[in-house]
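Quick check before the chapter quiz. The format below is the same one you will see on the exam, so make sure you can read both the input and the output lines.
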Amino acid sequence: MSERYAELVGIGSSVYDTLMVVDRFPTEDTKLEGLETKVQGGGPCTTALVAARKLGISAAYLGTIGKDTFGDYMLEDLRSWGVDVSGVRQLEGVSFHSVVLLNRATGSRTCIWNRGSVPQPTPDDLDNEALSHARVLHLDGHMLNAAVYAAQYCRERGIKVCHDAGGAYPGIERLLKFVDWLIPSEEFAIKVTGEKEPEAAAQALYEAYRPELLVMTQGVRGGMLLDEKGLRRYPSYPVEAVDTNGSGDTFHGAFVAAKLKGLDNDDACRFASAAAAIKCTRLGARQAMATEDEVDRFLAQRGEHLQSWNRE
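Here is the expected output.
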């Protein structure tokens, strides 16, 4: 790692995305002309790191990628956004990659992904110095053995552990018990708890694992925040959506950035929700993410003020 350690360290997926814009979803066994194509870095963990970096938080990625054109691109892309990749191990194999179809008629996205063949990192592969100097560890459930080790290591040292719980992967309960900031999708919470209603699922997940806070994401409906003050909702911000791909990752990175900047839980949710909305108004994932000034203007235009914000 570099001499200046990052505030935010991430372990999880890094994905080579090929995004294609189409005017409708294709019918099976036909050909369909794409309207626009964009190659970009993706993956929940690394995209959240870029979102936080664009908001002024130093970030580093610890993981493994392939010695292939996909891996080379992902490394250079992360470097271009200022994410430290000196702790990344590049190994033989095919990197994680995906094709994303963006349906212009509906604004929906469909993702076809392949995990590739690159070995996942082991606990021995991780840079403990980078972990011990971080303020937050961000995880997405991928590279699970390394993630569990790092989460326990950070928890023992008082470093906050944030988890993007988008997928209910096998063995994920091993990780959940070490998480401070748990950010599940509604789908995850319902699947893991067996509850039928999102409010009950949020409560059951919170009681089972006792994180410091739980933020359930519900897309255009905003979501729920649950902490020692109880359960309440946070807003979404309606926009003319151009591309929703990466909006959830933007939310996660922006939430971590907001907490590191001193915002309280409610304002951090509002800040992250605004950042995610801005991303949806532009094509692409990382290049479409908001800066701090853009989030400020977006909220001000809607008459919103973050009460816990201290810029001194």
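If your answer matched, good. The chain is about 35% helix and 20% strand.
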